[in-house]
Write a structure and sequence with these properties.
about 120 residues; four-stranded antiparallel β-sheet; single chain; mainly beta
Length: about 120
């Protein structure tokens, strides 16, 4: 079993920055993908950024130039540096990972979500 534990959300003003962290723990042979999604009230969950192992990073258009995803593979941790935050970035941010785990099978995992609120 694998757990994703997120931290770093909060209440900020427009233009401020936040850094989200997500650490994976448990039975992990390798991590294929780590990334972030978000869900605003009344809306569907949407991709923010994905970082495959050995592949190209993928950003949603609405965060390009403002958000940066990074990984510390030694710590099985992914970060999301969010700069120039806007009120429309307000959402619950979910960590996502695809992991080679028990039985040498690939599994999808989600974190519990962390609230990011940006006031105008």
């Amino acid at each position: 079993q694998v757990q994703l534990v997120e931290s770093g959300g909060g209440l900020v003003q427009a233009g401020d920055s936040l850094r989200l962290s997500c650490a994976a723990s448990g039975t992990i042979f390798s991590i294929n993908i780590m990334g972030w999604y978000r869900q605003a009230p009344g809306k569907q969950r949407e991709l923010v950024a994905l970082m495959p192992s050995g592949g190209s990073t993928n950003y949603a258009d609405f965060v390009k130039g403002r958000f940066t995803i990074s990984r510390d593979n030694a710590k099985n941790t992914v970060y999301l540096q969010m700069n120039s935050l806007k009120p429309e970035d307000t959402a619950v941010y979910y960590c996502y990972s695809n992991i080679l785990g028990a039985g040498f099978r690939n599994y999808d995992y989600w974190g519990q979500g962390t609230q990011v609120t940006v006031s105008s």
